[in-house]
């Protein structure tokens, strides 16, 4: 997901500073009629200082990747989300949001890169 183009280092210069949230919607479609819910498990490399966030593998320093559900709960490594499957549409959507974050400030210019693997379990 694209966290934004041309993020200025000044945006992340202060401790606790962040970019705007970017919405993420993961759709599960065409579920069998017997499927009642889906669990999504998130796995990625946690940041060394902010364990509820993901590490930046890019060239910018002092930056973490923050992922939350739309209610504001952190979705760090090994987090789960559960969604009921809509029986009429046989689908559901996992809504989340992501942003670049700097816990200590003084971020340096560069790329922001991260990977989160999603595993789905259907009930």
From TrEMBL:
<protein>
    <submittedName>
        <fullName>S-fimbrial adhesin protein SfaS</fullName>
    </submittedName>
</protein>
<dbReference type="GO" id="GO:0043709">
    <property type="term" value="P:cell adhesion involved in single-species biofilm formation"/>
</dbReference>
<dbReference type="GO" id="GO:0009289">
    <property type="term" value="C:pilus"/>
</dbReference>
<dbReference type="InterPro" id="IPR036937">
    <property type="entry name" value="Adhesion_dom_fimbrial_sf"/>
</dbReference>
<dbReference type="InterPro" id="IPR050263">
    <property type="entry name" value="Bact_Fimbrial_Adh_Pro"/>
</dbReference>
<dbReference type="InterPro" id="IPR000259">
    <property type="entry name" value="Adhesion_dom_fimbrial"/>
</dbReference>
<feature type="domain" description="Fimbrial-type adhesion">
    <location>
        <begin position="6"/>
        <end position="123"/>
    </location>
</feature>
<dbReference type="InterPro" id="IPR008966">
    <property type="entry name" value="Adhesion_dom_sf"/>
</dbReference>
<dbReference type="Pfam" id="PF00419">
    <property type="entry name" value="Fimbrial"/>
</dbReference>
